[in-house]
Design brief:
The protein is mainly alpha-helical. It has five helices and no strands.
Length: 123
């Protein structure tokens, strides 16, 4: 894949990833309304799993650029995770805030490892 084609792929997959994030997060919030930001948590954990799977399967080069950076980079969202945690803190909802921050890190890491192990097993 030429460099220009790869970067076009990053843009297209980035748009698709952002749209998928919006739809998944909104769908979860609609089905299970809560003060806890379960939509963003689900997006970030599933994206961590998918990136771990790609890494474990030794996807590299332009394919990793397009899928890992474009699609999954736009799908997952660190900034929203932080803003939602800050909002919980502003509301003095300390238990949910810390559960969200620590839970997202632990679940994200576990999902990444699980994805990586499955990716390795597929080799």
């Amino acid at each position: 894949m030429s460099g220009v084609v790869a970067w076009i792929g990053v843009g297209i997959c980035g748009a698709a990833g952002a749209y998928a994030r919006f739809r998944m997060s909104a769908g979860i919030a609609t089905r299970w309304p809560s003060r806890f930001p379960a939509g963003t948590l689900s997006v970030n954990v599933s994206g961590s799993f998918a990136l771990g799977l790609l890494t474990g399967a030794h996807v590299a080069g332009d394919a990793m650029l397009v899928i890992g950076t474009g699609l999954l980079g736009a799908f997952t969202t660190f900034s929203t995770w932080m803003v939602e945690a800050q909002r919980l803190g502003e509301d003095h909802d300390w238990m949910r805030m810390w559960l969200y921050l620590l839970g997202a890190m632990l679940l994200g890491l576990a999902a990444t490892v699980l994805g990586w192990l499955i990716g390795e097993a597929l080799q």
